[in-house]
Write a structure and sequence with these properties.
Strand content: 35-45%
Largest sheet: 9 strands, antiparallel
Order of helices and strands: HHEEHEEEEEEE
Distance between the termini: 24 Å
Shape: globular
Strand order of the largest sheet: 2-1-9-8-7-6-5-4-3
Number of helices: 3
């Protein structure tokens, strides 16, 4: 199984299990959201809490993980080239995804694995960027978390 540090696990669970709190926007037509989301695999490019970088706290083997959203509503999360554990499976999480009628809330319902279920708000979705945000409780205080994904090579 993938070695996940307590901080990393907490951040992943928080972003995907928290309810969104802000409005979404995009400069591409909403009708193309499914096509944009499923066109290519995605990887985490940046992650902040209250504007402070937390992406740099992730291990390199976690930064290259790949998110694939298929146009049939299924998703997978795959380990990238760098492995945190030699026994790490290629696909370590999978499930179903959807978004609400306003195309603002991305819901992920995991069917296998851990830490990749819940809802987050889409604040930007273009062919080159997927930005999601939510508020997470850290030590009893709500903090704004923003995660940016970009197409994986």
């Amino acid at each position: 199984m993938k070695k996940i540090t307590l901080l990393t696990y907490s951040l992943i669970v928080a972003i995907l299990l928290s309810l969104p709190a802000c409005k979404g926007s995009s400069d591409e037509p909403k009708a193309d959201y499914t096509a944009i989301l499923s066109k290519s695999p995605w990887k985490i490019f940046a992650q902040t809490i209250d504007g402070t970088d937390v992406f740099s706290d992730l291990e390199d083997c976690e930064k290259d993980d790949i998110f694939r959203f298929k146009n049939n509503g299924e998703y997978t999360v795959e380990g990238g080239v760098l492995k945190c554990n030699v026994n790490e499976p290629v696909v370590f999480a999978q499930g179903n995804w959807s978004y609400d009628s306003n195309l603002k809330i991305l819901s992920m319902n995991e069917t296998q694995g851990n830490a990749f279920s819940g809802e987050t708000e889409i604040t930007e979705l273009t062919s080159s960027s997927l930005v999601m945000e939510c508020y997470v409780a850290i030590n009893g205080t709500d903090r704004k978390m923003v995660i940016k994904l970009v197409p994986a090579p």
